[in-house]
């Protein structure tokens, strides 16, 4: 239990109403979460107009897919954040803006900003993931971050830092194996 | 495990790579195949998404511009699709399977005709789905401006189950585009919520499914064939 638990329960029950086609419930989800999800879209896409369009897609997806949310499997805000991330990455990949993305990635450090009031899994999973990411060597860490936030594939990651594909693959896989051990051991 | 060629370590790496979005080419096709055929693989991908998700916690919230009125205006067709879906389930239960897919495709096309979009150039994307042994199953053509799908069946197997078309976005789970005709051509508008998935590089797949309850939440049948959408 954390301080955010009531907010989490409320969001779960509101999503259940959305799954039954309740528009007022969707509006409530929108009001509760749009700043967080817009932040994610904006962070990944870097342009307000695009982020706005993708944000709209995200809530339409929630409207249609709320029935697929399983509160036993994921925290509601995590589920919503991943929809926003996947939508933004899908858009970004389809728009062939990797060079721009790279420039933006070089310019902006992904800092440790305030996390807001949301509970991302009940046991400070965000803090655990940060610790586990920080424990990785630099190459695996930056490659995994770049893939997650910029949507780069193996060959794009390899080209950007000018290493052979096999090297990039082994960096990422080493990072993934270490990350899994670290997270699962808590 | 469905794919005997993969060790359990490789199996988990592939799930992580798909969740992260780094995997490409043949490995990506293999991973997407597994999401369709192997429940434990889908679960492994989900577990990796859950492990990565807290990275998003650190991104600061930003007050969003007011998009609710625009968003609300777009909900109507979605609600109608829900009715169509229930109607479809009822009709499929009530009518013999053969002519139903065609009737439904028409019904779906009527009910979900999308708003015309101001797009100067009409671009088409196609996917030719082949069996593992390379025989053509069907050809999908997407009019990107209107979101209309035209599916031409080349040689789909017969039987009790009916062909269902899926789109698999990068790093995502399969989404049903609906049932299609076993022979001839099916033409219908993709549901508004799925149009964003229909992009160059998205994978289109076909499975055989029970005729009732479509569009299904997830495929239950083995994948007959899959191919990426490519722009002409």
TrEMBL record, chain A:
<dbReference type="InterPro" id="IPR013249">
    <property type="entry name" value="RNA_pol_sigma70_r4_t2"/>
</dbReference>
<keyword id="KW-0805">Transcription regulation</keyword>
<dbReference type="InterPro" id="IPR013325">
    <property type="entry name" value="RNA_pol_sigma_r2"/>
</dbReference>
<dbReference type="GO" id="GO:0006352">
    <property type="term" value="P:DNA-templated transcription initiation"/>
</dbReference>
<dbReference type="InterPro" id="IPR000838">
    <property type="entry name" value="RNA_pol_sigma70_ECF_CS"/>
</dbReference>
<feature type="domain" description="RNA polymerase sigma-70 region 2">
    <location>
        <begin position="33"/>
        <end position="97"/>
    </location>
</feature>
<keyword id="KW-0731">Sigma factor</keyword>
<dbReference type="InterPro" id="IPR013324">
    <property type="entry name" value="RNA_pol_sigma_r3/r4-like"/>
</dbReference>
<dbReference type="GO" id="GO:0016987">
    <property type="term" value="F:sigma factor activity"/>
</dbReference>
<dbReference type="InterPro" id="IPR014284">
    <property type="entry name" value="RNA_pol_sigma-70_dom"/>
</dbReference>
<protein>
    <recommendedName>
        <fullName>RNA polymerase sigma factor</fullName>
    </recommendedName>
</protein>
<dbReference type="InterPro" id="IPR039425">
    <property type="entry name" value="RNA_pol_sigma-70-like"/>
</dbReference>
<dbReference type="Pfam" id="PF04542">
    <property type="entry name" value="Sigma70_r2"/>
</dbReference>
<keyword id="KW-0238">DNA-binding</keyword>
<keyword id="KW-0804">Transcription</keyword>
<comment type="similarity">
    <text>Belongs to the sigma-70 factor family. ECF subfamily.</text>
</comment>
<dbReference type="Pfam" id="PF08281">
    <property type="entry name" value="Sigma70_r4_2"/>
</dbReference>
<dbReference type="GO" id="GO:0003677">
    <property type="term" value="F:DNA binding"/>
</dbReference>
<feature type="domain" description="RNA polymerase sigma factor 70 region 4 type 2">
    <location>
        <begin position="128"/>
        <end position="179"/>
    </location>
</feature>
<dbReference type="InterPro" id="IPR036388">
    <property type="entry name" value="WH-like_DNA-bd_sf"/>
</dbReference>
<dbReference type="InterPro" id="IPR007627">
    <property type="entry name" value="RNA_pol_sigma70_r2"/>
</dbReference>
UniProtKB/TrEMBL annotation, chain B:
<dbReference type="GO" id="GO:0006417">
    <property type="term" value="P:regulation of translation"/>
</dbReference>
<protein>
    <submittedName>
        <fullName>Anti-sigma-K factor RskA</fullName>
    </submittedName>
</protein>
<feature type="domain" description="Anti-sigma K factor RskA C-terminal">
    <location>
        <begin position="97"/>
        <end position="222"/>
    </location>
</feature>
<dbReference type="GO" id="GO:0005886">
    <property type="term" value="C:plasma membrane"/>
</dbReference>
<dbReference type="InterPro" id="IPR051474">
    <property type="entry name" value="Anti-sigma-K/W_factor"/>
</dbReference>
<feature type="region of interest" description="Disordered">
    <location>
        <begin position="210"/>
        <end position="232"/>
    </location>
</feature>
<dbReference type="Pfam" id="PF10099">
    <property type="entry name" value="RskA_C"/>
</dbReference>
<dbReference type="InterPro" id="IPR018764">
    <property type="entry name" value="RskA_C"/>
</dbReference>
<dbReference type="GO" id="GO:0016989">
    <property type="term" value="F:sigma factor antagonist activity"/>
</dbReference>
């Amino acid at each position: 239990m954390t301080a955010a638990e009531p907010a989490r329960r409320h969001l779960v029950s509101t999503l259940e109403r959305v799954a039954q086609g309740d528009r007022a419930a969707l509006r409530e989800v929108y009001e509760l979460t749009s700043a967080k999800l817009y932040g994610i879209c904006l962070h990944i896409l870097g342009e307000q107009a695009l982020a706005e369009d993708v944000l709209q897609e995200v809530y339409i997806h929630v409207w249609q897919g709320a029935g697929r949310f399983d509160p036993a499997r994921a925290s509601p805000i995590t589920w919503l954040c991943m929809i926003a991330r996947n939508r933004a990455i899908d858009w970004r990949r389809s728009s062939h803006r990797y060079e721009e993305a790279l420039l933006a990635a070089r310019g902006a450090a992904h800092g440790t900003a305030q996390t807001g009031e949301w509970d991302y899994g009940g046991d400070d999973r965000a803090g655990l993931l940060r610790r586990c990411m920080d424990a990785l060597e630099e190459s695996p860490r930056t490659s995994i971050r770049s893939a997650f936030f910029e949507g780069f594939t193996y060959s794009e990651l390899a080209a950007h830092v000018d290493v052979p594909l096999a090297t990039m693959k082994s960096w990422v896989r080493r990072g993934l194996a270490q990350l899994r051990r670290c997270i699962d051991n808590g | 495990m469905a794919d005997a060629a993969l060790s359990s370590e490789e199996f988990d790496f592939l799930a992580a790579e798909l969740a992260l979005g780094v995997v490409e080419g043949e490995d990506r096709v293999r991973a997407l195949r597994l999401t369709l055929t192997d429940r434990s693989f889908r679960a492994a991908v989900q577990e990796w998404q859950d492990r990565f998700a807290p990275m998003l916690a650190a991104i600061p919230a930003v007050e969003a511009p007011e998009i609710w009125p625009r968003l609300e205006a777009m909900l109507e067709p979605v609600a109608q699709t829900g009715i169509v879906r229930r109607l479809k389930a009822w009709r499929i239960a009530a009518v013999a399977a053969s002519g139903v897919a065609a009737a439904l495709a028409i019904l779906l096309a009527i009910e979900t005709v999308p708003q015309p979009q101001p797009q100067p150039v009409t671009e088409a994307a196609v996917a030719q789905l082949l069996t593992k042994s390379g025989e053509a199953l069907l050809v999908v053509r997407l009019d990107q401006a209107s979101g209309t799908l035209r599916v031409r069946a080349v040689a789909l197997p017969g039987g009790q189950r009916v062909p269902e078309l899926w789109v698999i976005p990068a790093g995502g789970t399969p989404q049903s585009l609906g049932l299609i005709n076993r022979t001839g051509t099916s033409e219908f508008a993709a549901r508004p919520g799925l149009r964003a998935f229909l992009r160059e590089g998205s994978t289109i797949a076909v499975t055989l499914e029970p005729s009732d309850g479509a569009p299904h939440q997830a495929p239950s049948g083995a994948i007959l064939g899959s191919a990426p959408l490519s722009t002409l």
